[in-house]
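Sequence design from tokenized structure. All designs in this work follow the same two-part layout: the structure record, then the generated sequence. An example of the structure record is given first.
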């Protein structure tokens, strides 16, 4: 088993975004040029709110979400395990089909 000696840290950028920087440890495989880092940029919540209010279509029905929340709080929400299993299987089938094309 190989131990990963890399170090990750999160830093804030001047634009308000968070950035995760991963430095390669001295025992890590050296496939990249020396001094390079892997980075991931995270979008701030204010940027996400701006995107959702920009008029783009939203992937959820807020009225349906509110109805489900109400049903859960009143104990009326019924879980259908067969429907969940079918949805998971369909998702896996789609992923397998997409990865083959």
């Amino acid at each position: 088993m190989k131990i990963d000696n890399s170090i990750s840290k999160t830093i804030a950028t001047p634009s308000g975004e968070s950035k995760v920087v991963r430095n390669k440890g001295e025992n890590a495989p050296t496939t990249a040029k020396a001094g390079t880092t892997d980075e991931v940029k995270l979008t701030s919540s204010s940027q996400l709110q701006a995107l959702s209010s920009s008029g783009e279509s939203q992937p959820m029905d807020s009225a349906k979400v509110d109805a489900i929340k109400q049903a859960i709080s009143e104990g009326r929400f019924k879980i259908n395990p067969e429907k969940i299993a079918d949805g998971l299987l369909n998702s896996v089938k789609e992923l397998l089909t997409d990865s083959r094309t």
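The mean pLDDT is 74. We note this feature because it recurs in several other targets discussed in the main text.
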